[in-house]
Amino acid sequence: MRKKVISFLRGEVIVREENSIIILTPSGMGFKVFVPYPEKIKNEIFVSHISDNRDQNLFGFLTFEELTLFEKLIKLPGVGPKSILSLFKYYTPSELYNAIENNEDLIVKGIRKKILKDIINFLSKDIEESYLKKDEFSEAVKVLLSLGFEKDKVYDIIRKVRRKKGKELKVDEIVKLALKEIKNEGK
Fold this sequence. Notes:
Layout: E1 8-10, E2 12-16, E3 20-24, E4 30-34, E5 44-51, E6 56-61, H1 64-73, H2 81-90, H3 93-101, H4 113-132, H5 135-146, H6 151-165, H7 171-186
Helix pairs in contact: 5-6, 5-7, 6-7
């Protein structure tokens, strides 16, 4: 298991390069941190410490939201830290989620199409799961499970209903649409 060694740095940015900064902490330690936007970093930065057999690197972000998303995406096979930094040059996490939710085309220099597609698929599932946890959808899942439907089937149907009809539905509307969908699949 990877232990976090460094999560946050505060100090003076003494060097800005194209994709990195060097931040000098009050204790006199200088840290090279790879960042998506060196010009925006002031004196505080959230950091992910990534180490492998050959290297130890720090990747920095302005917000905790970016750090959290970085640490989710880095676990995807084939997705490297530099690809994620490229993504963050163009989109904040909320812009990224909104673009995916609205089926907008994402264009990012420095990321292969397959990797970008994998990221989009992962984030789409993340969005869907967050909606399934909303009260209305959560209640609809409970109702359908209590009617004896299998859990996997219920989640699939609820996802379809949400995609087709949107997010702002009442529990009874979700259940009706889900039952209709189940009936149509049975034909």
